[in-house]
Amino acid sequence: MQRNWKRERESLINSIIAKGYLKTPKIVEAFRKIPRHFFVTEEFLHSAYHDIALPTIGTSTISQPTTVAIMTEALSPKEGEKILEVGTGSGWQACILAYCVGEKGRVITIEINPRLVEFAKRNIAKVGIKNVKVVLGDGSLGYPEEAPFDKIMVTAASPSVPKPLLEQLKVGGRLVIPVGDVYSQRMMVIDKKSEDEFEEKDLGEFVFVKLRGKYGFKD
Ligand code: SAH
Questions:
Q1: Is the pTM of this model over 0.70?
Q2: What is the pLDDT of residues 70-91, one digit of tens each?
Q3: Cα separation, 128 vs 70, whole angstroms
Q4: I want to staple 87 with a disulfide (CB 3.0 to 4.6 A). Which of 115, 155, 180, 182 is the partner?
Q5: What domains lie within the chain, and their CATH numbers?
Q6: Radius of gyration, CA atoms only, the chain
């Protein structure tokens, strides 16, 4: 049976708006224009518009839509910005950000697992988003080649805030990152006020896949 993806997507978006997690018109538009069912595996296609995280490849998951809404609203991407995402996974979050920054902006997203780099590239090509660059590497080190960034989003659980990410942020920039142990993290919003002054806000508890690499979890 042919599914009505548009109807399922609208109903998910409306429920996230009703809960108050999706507000900014451009971000709502991004949720409409970047169809989540292009970013899930065949096996979980039937749940593409359920408000739950779904397994993709290896230990990676595509985040829960409400979580993507909360993190995107918190990051507050603006037209023309250059954003770094750590943890590409399916590429869905990267495309949402890319849509928000528009053609004058760019998203660089780093993924440590080569199979996911290929998966994300295929998904991104399907939606026709051009301003995302997918890089294979350890994103806990940031991406010095393209630094500094207006904003940085980490979509994997981090034991602490990796220093290179704070360094690679512009003054006036913002980092959104889940920090904690492997079972639960706090969603931190960190504003860089000057080269050595940061202001933190805590958005509550979340659970993410582990960040690996130099500043990630070791086992
Ligand atoms: N943002 C993704 C979900 C990410 S899940 C989406 O929209 O689908 C977390 C991802 O972080 C996993 O794919 C995992 O392989 C990746 N990851 C873990 N440690 C990493 C590191 N040090 N650098 C880059 N990616 C990492």
A1: yes
A2: 999 999 999 999 999 999 999 9
A3: 24
A4: 155
A5: 5-206 (3.40.50.150)
A6: 16
